[in-house]
Design goal:
By secondary structure, the protein is α+β, with helices and mostly antiparallel strands. It has 3 helices and 8 strands; from the N terminus they run ββββαββαββα. It folds into 2 domains: 102 residues, Nucleic acid-binding proteins (OB fold (Dihydrolipoamide Acetyltransferase, E2P)); 51 residues, no CATH class. Strand 5 and strand 6 form a beta hairpin. It starts with a strand and ends with a helix. Keywords: DNA-binding.
């Protein structure tokens, strides 16, 4: 089955509500009223037809941005997937058409708008990472005070005053002290 996508223009009928579903998901909901007009040739003017009402839901970052950007009464354009819903309450059957919004914007035929880009969150260093770095820096200071260095190739902690070259019999002396 293919999703039906529509673009509608209407005025927001209520204040947006935003719900936090869990720590990573939020949804904003609002209604829009779309006034359908047609040209009446004999009277040479537009005539209002039936008003269509839609529920609009938007998710994630779009939900946050919509809640911060739109208010009741404002003209908007909504593009998204159409979803028909029906339910019963107290023995009475209800139906509603919901548009799951993919894009929302002000209708600039009726006013102006300004855009503010939202900065993405910069990852904050985790406390354990800062703690690990602080411990490593403290250990480096203590090694330096004790006259020790870390061999960059092997990671071994060695005395800082080791000669650059070891005597030829150094490995023989080491192998005598290490059990086989």
């Amino acid at each position: 089955m293919h999703d039906v996508r529509v673009t509608v223009r209407g005025n927001i009928t209520n204040d947006l509500t935003i719900r936090q579903l869990d720590e990573n998901r939020q949804v904003a909901n609002f209604g829009i009223a779309c006034n359908v007009r047609r040209w009446d040739g004999p009277t040479r003017r537009f005539v209002d037809q039936q008003t269509l009402y839609y529920r609009v839901s938007c998710w994630g970052r779009l939900a946050d941005n919509a809640a911060a950007s739109f208010a009741k009464g404002e003209p908007v354009l909504v593009h998204g997937k159409v979803k028909q819903e029906s339910w019963e309450k107290d023995g009475q059957r209800f139906e509603a058409t919901t548009i799951v919004a993919e894009y929302i914007g002000h209708d600039l035929n009726w006013g102006t708008s300004s855009f503010r880009k939202i900065a993405r969150a910069v990852p904050v260093e985790a406390p354990e990472d800062a703690m690990d770095r602080e411990i490593a820096e403290q250990a480096a200071r203590e090694r330096e005070q004790a006259g020790l260095v870390v061999d960059e190739l092997t990671g071994e902690v060695l005395p800082a005053d080791l000669p650059d070259e070891l005597p030829d019999d150094a490995w023989a002396q080491v192998s005598e002290t290490v059990p086989a």
